[in-house]
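## tool: complex_structure
## caller: assistant
## args:
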Amino acid sequence: MLRLDLRSRFATTITAAAALLLVTTTARAADGTLRVGGSTTLLFAVANGAATFMDRFKSWRDADPALPDVQPVIYVTGGGSGFGIKAAANGTLDVGMSSRDINDNEKTALGVYRSDLVGKDALAFAVQVNNPLAKVKRNLTSEDVRRIFSGQYRTYRDIDASLPAQEIVLLVRDPGSGVAELLQQEVMGKLQVSPNALQMPSQGALLKKLESNPNAFSYVSAGLAAELERLVIFTYEGTEPSHANIVNGTYKLARPLQLIVKGYTPSPLAKRFVDYMLNDGQAAVAAHGFVPLRDVGTAGKP
Amino acid sequence: MTTAAPSALAFSATHPRGRFSDWAARFVSRAVLALVILILAALLLEILREALPALGTALMPGGILRGDWAPVAEPPRFGLAHAIVSTGMVTALALALAVPVGFGIGLFAADIAPSWLRTILQPCLELLAGIPSVVYGFFGYVTLVAWFERHGGMATGESLLVAGAILAVMVLPFIAGVSVESFAAVPRLLKESAHATGVTRLHVLRRIVLPTALPGLFAAVALGLGRAIGETLAVLLLAGNSTALPTSYLDRGQPLTALIATELPEAGLGSGKYHALYGAGLVLILISVAINVMVWRLKARLLRHGD
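## result:
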């Protein structure tokens, strides 16, 4: 079935570059290479997972006796979720990475596929322990968040009359980053984040500023939240961003991180790598601030 | 090249104007000159080509010369006004602080300071010039930003004021370094002849030293300006990187360089944002060329007066 498809395409392909690509597709299983790509959110977590995989298994046979005795070479590239799904559908990649749900058009393009959730990227609102808001409120509604981030609430007094008229210093990531996209889609909708917000160049810079400035209000990856003792994490719509709530979907501000493999019988190499990411690879997912599906990180950590 | 001597002689017979080595040197320097011009032209053309789609719609709603920067709005808006104003304000403040101090250091080092002090000052300036900008940015972040939060009553210390002040420290060694050299290049004979006529020290400074050192001083300002306008990392950290249009030095802002650095990594190839960011690059080049042309014209006029 797959082979036939390749042949008919091979015949109609005109450009030499595309022909080359197809030749490598057919040769791939034999030389032990696996191509993974897509979501830049997942890129580093999966790349780290791939690195530990290649470190641990010198041959695919070490990973699974049924697999050929060739050295695993796993390429992980970015390109975005859209690219990851498209490339998994047309065979450019063995495994696509997506940090959003697959839409109907993409489902049609993929035909038969398997998608595995390796973790979730969740957003939690946070302030420093000395922040005025933390003293009166521990829960935020989506309306609160919209008003704060759009700049409609300028000072803490606008939120609660008992608080000082101190400016709410909004810290955000640049609009292209995963957490910023999530906030925009899930909470802001058509509203714009206030232009007065400080766009922090990295997650690290944002956390540092948030921890040091009592007026700052921001969001953090929920996976990191447990380790940040100087921060107060708000519940959102009454739900705590706990591991269980995020995984079972009660906590709404989260998006799926998934690996996609096309076909009735996925390539055994791709299947083995996805299995690895669902088990030992979960540590890499947790290490990048995401919420792993299995609670690996916190318990075993020193 | 002793082995090439006979052929070089033979060459010189047919070319009376110079030997082969002269010809080669001339050829190489012209080739290098052409290469530099070619690279510059290619760079400008490429930026212009990528900015072109944004220039076509520059004055329409959402264009780069209208309104605000809201890349995730529907439809997106790519106004650069806030960044142009931020760049202008930060650069102006940096030069206003650094130029007088830089000239002062230059005059002091060249004319007044004892020679032992000069031998310390020069390497210090060079050392300051060599410190990477992220270090200045971080230094400003932990000192000035924190100070404004603690004692300035600001909710957060990032502001154009802090960015401009740190930028002034960054460009100071360049301005001071070049002005030391241009003040030192004023011929001793001129100064001593003037002193011999019995005029005051200030008179010598105004009538002899300043006019003679003037071309060098303009070069110092132009160098400092180029450095200030192109600085990215320190202003990104210190100006707050906010897209609101700043109206005072206590406001946060986002200079053009910081805008490009923040947005370009995630801008899709060929998207509206991508072209708008190239537009920002073009604006940056145009501002810096315009100011440089102004500086050189001013210099030409002042020098004509001096004659």
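## assistant note: The interface with chain B takes residues 166-167, 169, 174-177, 184, 190, 192-201, 205, 209, 213, 215-216 of chain A (CB under 8 Å). Residues 1-27, 297-302 of chain A have pLDDT under 50 and may be disordered. Handing back to user.
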